[in-house]
Every structure is written in structure tokens, then in C-alpha cells.
Amino acid sequence: MRCSEIKRKTGETDIILSLNLDGTGKSEIATGCGFLDHMLTLFSKHGSFDISLKCAGDVNVDYHHTTEDIGISLGKAFADALGEKRGIRRYGSFILPMDEALIMTAVDLSGRCYLAFDADMPTEKVGDFDTELTEEFFWGFARNAECTLHIKKLSGLNSHHIIEGIFKSAARSLKEAVSIDPALAGEIPSTKGVL
User: CA-to-CA distance for 167 and 153, rounded, in angstroms?
Assistant: First the structure.
């Protein structure tokens, strides 16, 4: 089983996170932000990742630090669980419809960080969650998972649907990328011999 545990404590957040890449999509999520709980529960389910996450953050200020630090912690958890990345498919992509929204994501677990985020939001908030924090979350994730991640909104009018589509599509892309390819026989999927 490819698992990891991350503990991150700063002056803004206190996070305890455990991840099993080879899970069944079970989750226990408590971030202090209902909308983010919902998105991470969907991420866990659609990626078949088991995630336990507790975050005590300065949500009296806003959800920025909580959202960004959870992205950082989840990215670190992926990097730790993948180790040398032997035998993984490395690449994954998915186009996901969410009612009127259509989201495309593609990931390369390259060992290099890059985020291309092309998903404008029709509204500034979904409930009390600032929609711009979606990009902050995935920057934190991509930097710390050391992956290249492209997120593109092909269509969409409802901010909730767009963000939900992004989390689901990213999870499906990552599920494919972290999966083991029997044909690789435990090799690192790079001509460099390292990722």
C-alpha cells in the first residue's frame, strides 16, 4: 500500500492528513469550511484515494490559509506516497461534464512543478468560499506533489459546478497517473531514470 502521513503546523493552520493512494475513496474530512469539505470528499471518492484530514485554521480571517495549506499538505502526501514513482503510468487526463460545466484536466507526475489554470469563475463566492481559492489550492498541490497540472474550463456558467468539475476531473486524472502499469515492471517511467 502506498500511504503517507503529513503533519503541518504553522501560525495559521494545524493540519493532520493521512493518504492511501490504493484505497477505495473513503474519507473523513474536517477543514472548517463546508464547501472545501465537500470538494475534498468528492476528490477522495473519484480518485479512489482514502483521505483522513483534520485542519484547524484561522477561518475567522477567511479560508485562504486553510485552503492553500491543505493543498500543500495533500501535495506532499502524494509525493511521499509515490516515492521513486516506480511502475506508475505517470500521465493522466480526464474530461468531466458537470451539468453545464465541462472541465479538462491533465497531469504529469514529472518531478517538476507547473500549474496552468484556465478556469474563470462567474461569481466571486460559492457560499462563503472565495472561488479564487480554487487556483490557490491547486498551486499548493502542484508545487508540493512536484507535478505538471493543466486545468481548463471548456464551458460552465455555475461556479459551484465548475469547481466541483475541477476537483472531480483532477482526481480522475491523478487516479490514472498514480496507477501501476504492469508493463513497466517497476521501472521509473523516464529516460532520465529519475522523476
Answer: 12
Map the chain to HEC letters: CCEEEEEEECCCEEEEEEEECCCCCCEEEECCCHHHHHHHHHHHHHHCCEEEEEEEECCCCCCHHHHHHHHHHHHHHHHHHHCCCCCECCEEEEEEEECCEEEEEEEECCCCCEEEEECCCCCCEECCEECCHHHHHHHHHHHHHCCEEEEEEEECCCHHHHHHHHHHHHHHHHHHHHCECHHHCCCCCCCCCCC
State how far the Cα of 59 lies from the Cα of 12, in Å rounded to an integer.
9
Instruction: Tell me the C-alpha distance between 149 and 129, whole Å.
Output: 23
pLDDT band at 185 (very low <50, low <70, confident <90, very high): confident
pLDDT tens-digit series, residues 95-141: 999 999 999 999 999 999 999 999 999 999 999 999 999 999 999 99
Q: Are 96 and 102 in contact (CB under 8 A)?
A: yes
99 grid coordinates = 451539468
| Model-wide pTM > 0.90 | yes
Given a contact cutoff of 8 angstroms between Cβ atoms, the answer to whether 151 and 117 are in contact is: yes
